[in-house]
Design goal:
The chain is an all-alpha fold and 392 residues long. 56% of the residues lie in helices and 3% in strands. It contains 17 helices and three strands. The protein has helices at 37-43, 46-55, 61-73, 79-86, 94-108, 119-145, 158-167, 178-191, 198-208, 213-225, 232-245, 250-258, 279-295, 300-313, 316-320, 327-337, 345-366, and strands at 21-24, 29-32, 35-36. It has a three-stranded antiparallel β-sheet. α3 (61-73) crosses α6 (119-145) and α8 packs antiparallel against α13. The longest helix has 27 residues, at 119-145. The structure holds carboxymethyl coenzyme *A. Carboxymethyl coenzyme *A binds next to α16. This is Citrate synthase. Pfam families: Citrate_synt. Pathway: Carbohydrate metabolism; tricarboxylic acid cycle; isocitrate from oxaloacetate: step 1/2.
Length: 392
């Protein structure tokens, strides 16, 4: 069986070659298909970025128009999916509902199960998923709050349509605030891909068995949910709220984070790859200031976050271990400011990461990658004699 190298958590193991996302953790550089995250967040729209990730090039005007048209065409979801949502208790976490709904698409589009489909057929599946995720996400939320679901409004752009499905109620006029839609669009761009992170690696491994795109993405959503990964954005706000409720003493929580007997970690700090700063966190911090100013919101949680960051950046323990604020540290503050409830934060991350997952899944199939199947070092009993139940 040969010699096996053990690398728990794959800290030093490359699982694939990829031409999608470049990440330099020492220098804090992140580029999608060669374009810097700063340029894309400043100048592109989320749909343009999704096109870039999935097809490899920024779209020209005609390509973008036809892409938008196709996405818009598929925003509606089957009424039976509503019945599935109705079957969930209203206190269900929307991430659980979302990954179930994405998996359920395999039943509504069984042709997606065929691993030998043409590129055009796969492309249909891809566009359906990008179009339907916001609808499913908003409907999961409506179920949670016990409100009637809103149908997509195809006259609106991707983020505005999502916001309207989330927040419009039949008794009131709802006008999408462009400041809010733009802030959301930027956040989605910053989350769109991040090479072989836990959820993306999951999508690729699941897809490597030739499971369908929907099944693979559903698995990715589950992986993202955990608090060490995408679930950190919810955990950060809950932590900041707890610090606030506890009198705002950031030093007390710093001490907890450093205490090896305490499982508490400073949520939104640290990263497997970034060891100087997370370029996404830099952009988001600035955006949080801008969005709160534009919306005239004074959020005491932002002050606590800044206080915590300052203390952490000057702390020996954090300096030694190169722990810096990551993408999740400030994103929740913007989500809060634009009215997204805390339980939906990780769903927002999933909406943003979707094009990255899709691009990585496609690349994995196009590169004809072998099934993902790591080895192990066995540490159990060598060989034992079977004992009857009376003898045990
Ligand atoms: N608070 C306190 N100590 C920490 C933290 C933290 N947030 N993060 C890492 N450490 C310590 C850890 O205890 C270890 O110390 P020691 O060397 O004394 O044992 C050292 O720093 C290295 O940590 P690690 O857990 O071995 O590093 P990792 O690369 O396996 O984990 C991480 C990376 C992101 C899971 C981790 O930093 C963490 O749990 N952070 C908090 C959760 C979080 O914010 N996650 C979001 C990550 S970014 C976006 C995303 O993936 O969604």
């Amino acid at each position: 069986t040969g010699y096996i190298t053990l690398d728990r958590g794959f800290k030093n193991t490359g699982s694939t070659s990829s031409s999608i996302t470049f990440l330099d953790g020492e220098k804090g550089i992140l580029r999608y298909r060669g374009y810097s995250i700063e340029d894309l967040a400043e100048n592109a729209s989320f749909l343009e970025v999704s096109y870039l990730l999935i097809y490899g090039e920024l779209p020209d005007k005609t390509a973008l128009e036809s892409y938008k048209k196709e996405i818009t065409y598929h925003t509606l979801i089957h009424e039976d999916i509503k019945n599935i949502i109705d079957g969930f208790p209203s206190n269900s976490h929307p991430m659980g509902v979302l990954c179930s709904l994405v998996s359920s698409l395999t039943a509504f589009y069984p042709e997606s199960l065929d691993p030998n489909r043409s590129a055009n057929e796969v492309d249909q599946t891809v566009k359906r998923l990008i179009a339907k995720m916001p609808t499913m996400a908003a409907w999961a939320y409506k179920n949670k709050v016990g409100h009637r679901a809103n149908y997509p409004d195809n006259s609106l752009d991707y983020c505005s349509n999502f916001l309207k499905m989330m927040f419009a109620v039949p008794s009131e006029e709802y006008e999408v605030d462009p400041v809010i839609a733009n802030a959301l669009d930027k956040l989605l761009i910053l989350h769109a891909d991040h090479e072989q992170n836990c959820s993306t690696a999951t999508v690729r491994v699941v897809g490597s068995s030739h499971a369908s795109l929907y099944a693979s993405i559903s698995a990715g959503i589950s992986a993202l949910w955990g608090p060490l990964h995408g679930g950190a954005n919810q955990a950060v706000i809950e932590m900041l709220e707890a610090i606030q409720a506890d009198g705002g003493d950031v030093q007390k929580y710093m001490a907890k984070a450093k205490d090896k007997d305490d499982p508490f970690r400073l949520m939104g700090f640290g990263h497997r790859v970034y060891k100087n700063f997370d370029p996404r966190a830099k952009i988001i911090k600035k955006a949080a200031d801008e969005v709160l100013a534009k919306l005239g919101i004074d959020d005491p949680i932002l002050e606590i976050a800044k206080g915590l960051e300052e203390v952490a950046l000057n702390d020996e323990y954090f300096i030694e271990r190169k722990l810096y604020p990551n993408v999740d540290f400030y994103s929740g503050i913007i989500y809060r400011a634009i009215g997204i409830p805390t339980s939906m934060f990780t769903v927002m991350f999933a909406l943003g990461r979707l094009p990255g997952w899709i691009a990585q899944w496609k690349e994995m199939r196009l590169q004809n990658e072998p099934i993902g199947r790591p080895r192990q070092v066995y540490t159990g009993e060598v060989k034992r004699e079977f004992k009857t139940i009376e003898e045990r």
